[in-house]
Amino acid sequence: xxxxxxxxxxxxxxxxxxxxxxxxxxxxxxxxxxxxxxxxxxxxxxxxxxxxxxxxxxxxxxxxxxxxxxxxxxxxxxxxxxxxxxxxxxxxxxxxxxxxxxxxxxxx
Length: 108
Hints:
Number of helices: 3
Shape: elongated
Number of strands: 0
Mean pLDDT: 86
Strand content: under 5%
Helix content: 40-55%
Largest sheet: none
């Protein structure tokens, strides 16, 4: 199946889909409940899969972005070891640079 959409468009739609799934996971911790919501998100994307008119597609994507923006979680989940997580930069390994000898340094 060949489509006339660019790879940038496909990447954008994939990014939007993943952001919507991630946002749903921020709201629902239990995976069994989240799975139902993920299937609803997937059904919405599948419903608009065959839209090829650029203006209609732009309206659909704009509506999806607005819906995502209105439903964003105020305190999204951040994995502990990622930047902003609770364990980020905790117990950083020491640098391998030479240790500065303060007693041997000549002070002016």
